[in-house]
User: Fold this.
Amino acid sequence: MLSDYQTCERIFEENGPFFHIFTTPPEKELLFINNEHYKEAMNILALAVTEAKAKELAYAIMSNHIHNIIAANKEQCIDCVDNLRKRLSGFVRRSGKKLPPIEINLVEIINLKQLRDEIAYVIRNPYASRVDVNPFSYQWCSGFLYFNDLLALLPSGTPARETSIVTRRTIKHERSQDMIPSLRIWENMIVPSSFVDYRLVMSFFDNARQFVWWTTRNVEAYIATAARLGEKGILTDEESYTVALTCTKNEFGVDSPKFLTVEQKKQLIRTLKYKYGLNNKQLSRCTSIPLPFINEMFPPILHP
Assistant:
């Protein structure tokens, strides 16, 4: 009899390859600034994935970038990236933004642990960036789809083939009205549950509790994933405090930074700064080490 992990691993092997597709944020301007923009981004993502005949697993649409995890062979993945680039370029042009071509990055996912890490990273992204976001209810991220008994109560939309030609052309921004039969439309937006294979994602985790832990508590994996993607992980103050206590105990064998020597405090601050990316004020809050002491080690950048 297979263990839960072995079952998840078998499902992983049977449904790959997997890829994480994400865009590089523009330097000075937001891509999406209102609900209409976010709706269009949702449609762009859904069309790029389904027209490439790939499986959508997880996504997060942020104000200045998109994260997207798919199951696809390499040819389907390339088609998805090309379609995403074309459709995002069209959106930028229609919205009148003066931006350089959007850079799209691609990372292949090679094992089950990495897939779990990257799914959790994507779902956590809005929550890490905004204090007003619940990772399991944010409407522009797929986090609400998994292990959700209330999903059936949400609007399911109308099958795309039953909507008007004008509606479909409006969504696609082209004369072609073709959409795969499974897509459903609600208020001119493709419904996430009609293009995300959320049941497959659920099968990669032993249970709902593990999924929630992986998304909200697995700080080490979150930081490692951010580094792998070339991004900066953002920890909450609660997570920073937990990490500070863990490092203090593991590295120095004491329960609190207040018991450390001056040199040990400096070593702890360097670890928290370089490994976990904490800023000076976070470092002070989570260690109770005075901010002037930390500022001496890492002088703040003064903007004119």
Notes: The two ends are 66 Å apart (CA to CA).
